[in-house]
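Chain X:
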Amino acid sequence: MNIAIAGGTGLIGTALRASLEADGHTCLILSRSEGENTVLWDPAKGEIDAASLAGIDAAVNLAGRNVGSRWTESVKQEIRSSRVEGTSLLATTLAGLDPKPRVLINGSAIGYYGVKREGELTEDAPSGDGFLAEVCREWEAASSPAQEGDIRTVCLRTGVVLTPEGGALEKILTPFRTGLGGPVGDGKQWMSWIALDDVVGLIRFALEQTTLSGPLNVTAPEPVTNADFAHTLGEVLSKPSSIPAPAFALKLAFGQMAEETLLSSVKALPAKALAAGYVFRFPALKPALEHLLS
């Protein structure tokens, strides 16, 4: 396949591109800078080189500002606009191509479900409250021009992606390796995690599985509480893991970001992926961590 990727130099995009190209697929990277196998675009200005997208079979949109910092009003605006404006521009452009690509795989997140939710949440669950829930609703809605243009559209509601190369796991490895790690807050909040290998696997599955459309929970089938996550990580590293990060300190340092990410509780299950036949490489946490940290 010939696949265009927005966010192709990010954590997930880099791994996805390597996997696809290793199997002989061609990847075009949407970028603000010229380069080999790139398509120029600037979502903030509403500009994209549509002609360079002619003939693509699929598009994957993973672009968006990192949410892992204190949310000032300007940062919140960047988080929202980087997702919504880019998605709207890409979806509208794809719908106008002739021929059109067969599928758009678009980013989203389990933040869609809100800050603290009770029970198990599948793709049928309604959206929740909070800034990230608002962003995710707008993010997914911005992909509608592609769907209305008869392009199969999948929105990836991604959980906490585990890899030592970046994201949450990379940030906490140092304290855990020195024996100073532990749960966040009271540790009772649910953590819907997924190994990077399975993120790439699910994206590739969604590219090929023509029966999949709409929201798709990109999470492992065995979520854990934050306390269980800390205990398991300490066990894998052979280190104690009983020093908690107090909730009040996190709220003081990071404000709303801490409440909606670090302290949020969402037990999302990948019901659609399992029903469609996807086989997780790492359904359970301990084997996943052992693989990632070996």
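Chain Y:
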Amino acid sequence: MTGPRRGDWKNMGVSPTAKNVIQLPRAGRRRARARVVAITSGKGGVGKTNIVANLGFAFGNLGQRVLVLDADLGLGNLDVLLGIAPKFNLSHVIHGEKQLSDILVDGPGRMKILPASSGIQELTQLTHEQKVQFLTALDQLVDDMDMLLIDTAAGISTNVMDFNVTAHEIIVVVSPEPTAITDAYALMKVLSLKYAEKRCQLLVNMVATPREGEDVFRQLGLVTERFLDIQVDYLGCILNDEKVTRGVKHQRLVCDLFPQSRASRCFTQLAERMVKASPTSRPKGNTNFFWHHLVQSTPL
């Protein structure tokens, strides 16, 4: 199913100038089936995109139909990491030149990829109308998927937060570095105080031992419990592994190139736990998952 073309929101009950309630026509409403997971971080350089890609690969090995959205709209690099060269990307969709189905590419394993653009600054400041149109198209595209993984940009910009709060689950990636821990707390603070999110999950990357991951979670848990109204669940850790770096240099995923490495085993075990476990927050609203937040009185 393809998404709406430029201007089609006018025919969907959505006014480009609407600042109050945005309504989806009753005929287009449905229950969301795909599990939508936003994977985000307060700081860049913590390995978030590598985690998204390897998790997607591991989910595919478990029989899941996976769509990965590179939501770092202005500085996307998922395609580079995977060694693919898409002809079109999200910039063509935002500008009305292509539909989402036109830019969809095959990734390694069973993944499908929606590639972002790189070096286009205007895409980091989408208007409310552009977000409505884009999320409507994305909502329709995931009909045939089991899992949508959203690889957000790092930080606390409006674009990042919009993608986080539309997902069923939010996974915050952090490394053991003090700056990464501080920025992860800042991200959770914004989610809690400004967006009223009540729950997120923590994944600690590049740890020497499982104990180090637990220590990072404990540090963040102490301050979030004291100062924020948000529950932080410990999702697990990914062990530091030089084979991850080797895979990046070859533009291959460690789960693909070195399936028995210790990092690959972490990804596999994490994917297995997530598939077996019930989603922590599903769904947000009983109809189209993105529309739960588009019907708010304040524009995105």
